[in-house]
Amino acid sequence: MQSTRNGDSSRPALQSSSQKDHLARADEHGELDQGVRDNSPTLASAIPVDLVRQPRARRYILRVTRAGRVRVTIPRGGSEAFARRFLAEKKDWIEIQLQRLAARAQAREVWCAGTPVWFRGERTPLVERDGRLWLGALELANFDTRHDWRPVVLRALFQLARAELPALVWSEAKRLGIPIQRVTVRNQRTRWGSCSRKGTISLNWRLIQAPTFVRDYLIIHELAHVREMNHSQRYWRLVDEWFPAWRAAEQWLRRHGRELLD
Ligand SMILES: [Zn+2]
Predict the structure, then answer these.
(1) Looking at the 3D structure of the chain, how many domains does it have?
(2) How far from 30 is each of 16, 108, 158, 251, 256, CA to CA, in Å?
(3) How far apart are CA 236 and CA 232, in angstroms?
(4) 186 C-alpha vs ligand 1 centroid, how far in Å?
(5) Which residue in 24, 25, 131, 207 has the fewest CB atoms around it within 10 Å?
(6) Where among 55, 90, 107 does a domain terminate?
């Protein structure tokens, strides 16, 4: 009876049509929510909510506006109590939308000394020292202090990912006895990785921005798809066996994934 709609961004409770790709959108694999409980205070609980009665509306509509407000449209015959319950149910989705907004605002900023950049799971400030640019222990080659450092930083991270990730995939594949053909590192906007039927594993370079356990989980996630090209119970049993901490990794991605992708 309840349904949702919103104008310019993704819908809650969206189901994935793809069976093999690991999509970055947390709302596309609702099955993962089972057993994962997060009781910490969330952004969504602190943000302003508008309940708007709209006699012409035919159903409850939930939106996160560009200004960062949450609006629930209550249809004729609807109740505020139901709207609030509905809101509580969609808490995770709302939080993801708000994170997206925040990440977009951040993405528009110029990067310079002090700008925090996700690197191996830490928001690491960029540092200029002796005419060189550093991100943690990573030295970034030729850059011009007068300009935005962002392209230089992103390029360096991409190169690092290409140097690091494939070797990790190959060694895990060997250890687990999974036959693969090829490993690619790509600049994907919407997913962390994918696995083709031909045995090509593709990973998003941004995984080097995530904590190492999240990166390792994604590698296992894709390797497990070589055996099971779906997200069936059999598939998750395999992941659970190979990487028991997968829930914590999924939780990290739900929380912070958007900050890396936007
Ligand atoms: Zn998957």
Answers:
(1) 2
(2) 9, 31, 30, 12, 17
(3) 6
(4) 17
(5) 131
(6) 107
pLDDT over 90 percentage in the chain: 43
In angstroms, what is the span from residue 230 Cα to ligand 1's centroid?
A: 7
Q: Are residues 130 and 243 in the same domain?
A: yes
Give the pLDDT confidence of 207-227 residue by residue, as tens digits.
999 999 999 999 999 999 999
How remote is the CA of residue 155 from the centroid of ligand 1, in Å? 27
Domain, as residue range, for 79: 22-107
What contacts 224, CB < 8 A, 6 or more positions away? 235, 238, 239, 242
pTM: 0.62
Whole-number Å distance between alpha carbons of 214 and 119: 12
Do 129 and 90 belong to one domain? no
Report how far residue 64's alpha carbon sits from residue 56's, in angstroms, rounded to the nearest whole number: 20
88 & 197 share domain: no
